[in-house]
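Per-record layout

source: Kouleothrix aurantiaca
name: ABC transporter substrate-binding protein
length: 438
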Amino acid sequence: MAEAPTAAAAAGGAAEVGNPFNVAAGEIDGVFFAGGFGDDYIKYAGQLVEKAHPDVKVKVQSIQKVQEQLQPRFVAGTPPDVIDNSGAGLIPMADLVAEDQLLDLAPLLAAPAWDTAGKTFGDTLFPGSQTSAIFGGKQYGINIAYTISGIWYSKPAFEAAGYTYPKTWAEMLTLCEQIKKDGKQSPWTYQGRYPYYIWGIVWNMLVYYAGGDDVIKKLDNLEPNAWSDPAIKRATEDLYQLWDKGYIMPGTEGLTHTESQTEWLKGKAVFIPCGNWLENEMKDTTPADFNMTVANIPGYADGKGDQNAVNANGGETYIVPAKGKNTAGGMEYLRALLSKDSAKYFAENVRAIMPVTGGTEGAKLSEGMKAGVALAEGSKGVAINMNFTNWYSAMNKEIDQRTGELMTGVIKPDEFISIMQKKADEVAADPDIKKFTR
């Protein structure tokens, strides 16, 4: 991967950056997941810190399997100063919180913003972008990406085929049948070995569109019989239709995220669910004329939820371990990372959005990013998230496994719902699991 350009833009504002955490000379030990966003932006933020604090060196180590590689350091009491805790192998946040491993980031939120005069760091973040990293009212992580997720397809290929993007899920199924009859492509594929792409991007939105936020709130709060709500039955049965009617590309279940996305780029399937990191993750294999774009999950004409709501949330969670050697340095790195300077670099080079006010000002956006921003603007601030999978690792593992089984016909919708309710009841009844509500 190309080396990040020098952070020359920081030079003019370095004098105003300050040092609110009293970071001492020495090293900031950073270990970061390098996935769809790559690691150039991580290096760029490090250069911002080093430019502002010449006696500080930011160590950048990029890894893939966060839990496997960092769990031993947590156990030994020698964790890094700042971590990008992301990817399929992340360390469950709820587990780290329960073990008192994370620093409360209230001081970071209250600190002066890096390059926005008169504002605190917290003031510059998009409202609602940090909720998934709040546990018991405390901010234990910072989401550095504003992820807009939806259904992706090649705009020119879609239009050349004469297709019209569906407004409702019923229309989606009708279109899938037409694509299947045309016989040139499968209607759908998804990241088969990582089912959270399809339940976290499609199923959760169908639940919301059918029943509104009250249904999701009941799931988050582990309420008795929450999973028996008609909206969940409807959403689960509708998602299952993709498998049951043969609309999913054969072999999808055995593919990794990049493998399924590669097959999609080859034209083997029309639709794939993903977040707006997709463009950057697949930039080296995307055909020049593919012109990928993203659209919302089609809802229900008679649904209770806001049908313009979008699957958008803060993600790519960075944490500062409480037992890190240089926690002040860890917070200072995050202060630089979520600056306007860094956010603009992120928009132009990673083709993704940071939840930073003014972060895309003057940035040249890709077509996929423009479409994602349009979805967010069209939602009028209504963004849907589920918390129970983030709060309870057992629930996250269960829905991942069971969605994989649902999407391969191993279990039927009623069985999926029954199993999930049973697991929710087990978690609710376990006194050793700390509970959260909203």
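summary: The beta strands are 26-33, 56-63, 82-84, 134-135, 138-139, 142-154, 186-188, 269-275, 292-295, 311-319. The chain has 18 helices and ten strands.
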